[in-house]
């Protein structure tokens, strides 16, 4: 197996590599047979929107071709991102949101042949070195056992639940597309929010 190198991509580089990133997506999430084209197109639309978000940041794992990536963006200060959150947000979360210090991880992908080799941890370390003072959060679908396993292995804690909808607008929360599930029922707790320990 080829040695894996990590590198950070600028917004422009991410846009130039969108097809290679989509290839990683299709391989990493192998959805319902025959739905690959629709899954890929849906991913590319979400990726295009995410790349345009404020302070988009991305790192990739390369082993003679992309084998993984992690990316995210800074949440808007308006707090709209927290709509649908069940419960009371901790004061620290509200303060950091208002001051523009919340960074949302929206996608982690590693192709199956390169999993369980520490690549996700290496990607996380490189990406978050720029966000040491930020509150870093991720949202996963409630049935995303692999995502939950990764976040727990990183020492992250569950912040709370969200109603149906897509809190982050893309990324890990996009796992509903991957799972091929329909839209959740109104009021259903469909998403979990996780945060990096302070």
Description:
- With 198 residues, this protein is an alpha+beta fold.
- The protein is 33% helix and 25% strand.
- Strands 1-2-3-5-6-8-7-4 form an eight-stranded mixed β-sheet, with helices on both faces.
- The protein is globular, with a radius of gyration of 16 Å.
> Over the alpha carbons, how many angstroms does the gyration radius reach?
16 Å
**Helix-strand makeup class:** alpha+beta
Q: Count the beta strands.
A: 8
Q: Largest beta sheet, briefly? A: 8 strands, mixed
Discrete helix count: 7
Q: Report the end-to-end length measured between terminal Cα atoms.
A: 36 Å
List the helices and strands and how they pair.
Blueprint: E1 5-9, H1 11-16, H2 18-29, H3 36-51, E2 57-62, E3 66-74, E4 85-86, H4 91-98, E5 102-110, H5 119-128, E6 135-141, H6 145-153, E7 157-162, H7 175-179, E8 191-195
Summarize the structure.
It is built from seven helices and eight strands; from the N terminus they run E-H-H-H-E-E-E-H-E-H-E-H-E-H-E. The protein is α+β, with helices and mostly antiparallel strands.
